[in-house]
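Issue 218. Parser rejects a valid record. Input:
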Amino acid sequence: MAKKNIQQLTDEEIRICGLLKRRNIPIVSLDVKWLKLFPEEDKTPEIRRLEHELKELLKRQGKVNTELKDIRIVRDKLTQSVLNTAEDTSIPEAKRLKKQEASQRLIVEAREKQEKLEAEQEELPKLISDANNALIFESVKVCYNRIDKNKKDIEKLGDWIEETRAKLKERVVLKQDKELKNKEMYAYLHDLLGPNVMEAFDEESS
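Output the parser choked on:
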């Protein structure tokens, strides 16, 4: 299924997406109940695609947070190195200036990388929320399709049960009728022939 863009969504779908955003729902692919509803073998291709997108964004968020933590440590170390070098009079001035320039260049590069990461860090929660809502929206549609199919199956099963119950009732009555006739015939023969003759017949028919 091709991914829908906002122009392809119906008015009702857009309205529901807005309601989902206001709900601030936790990450559904990490929800044990969602995973129970959607085991791997029951996931549609679209569910798999949306879940993959969400997982990739979550992984990226973790990586960005780690890289930001590392880059801040690097910047602090570089800044401290510049200060230490500036105060270290035992290093020749030309060498000291060269070392400071190299450190300052690295600080600028680190700052630029940090700014990019911070911008991405700020953007990722919205992207994750949108991806999560898209997965929820698709999950709801799949669930409603399943519910609709189950309702039809329940109706068919109900009809089968009623039909079977009626047939069972008929057969119970038929069984009881045959048992009653057997008793009547045996009682008549018993009265007519007597117990000794009936015993002989019983042995013959057994």
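Fixed in the parser; the record now loads. The first helix runs from residue 11 to 23.
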